[in-house]
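Let us practice reading a record.
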Amino acid sequence: MGLSSFFKNLFGSTKESVTELANNAEETFEQAKEAAVPYIEKAEAFAEETIEKVKEVSEPIIDNAAEYADKAKDTVSEYADKAAKVVNDVVDSVKEKTASLGTNETPEIVSETVVDESEKTVAEVEEIADDAAEKA
């Protein structure tokens, strides 16, 4: 009988020890959660403040880039219009000169090749402005 009481005491005390350890672990976990709350709140506040500061600092840069892109677009458009006019004038001049040189024996072969570079140039300026805005 001494052997059976030994095992009962041994396993009974082990069961109580495991239960006690589980309760202590649960209490420690709850304390750790409570202790971490202020740090989590501070980290969230810091992140929000940092995001606001970045927004404030980047706004003027983005505005300047947008203004620069608009000015560049206007300038390019102005020169593209002038270039298109010059090309049209040259084509008209060539037509007039070839018409005055023409004879009935020579067939008139004049093709009009005018490329409107203003669209391409404006698109390139807009792309550059977009890239500048993304980098800012």
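A brief commentary: The chain is about 90% helix and 0% strand.
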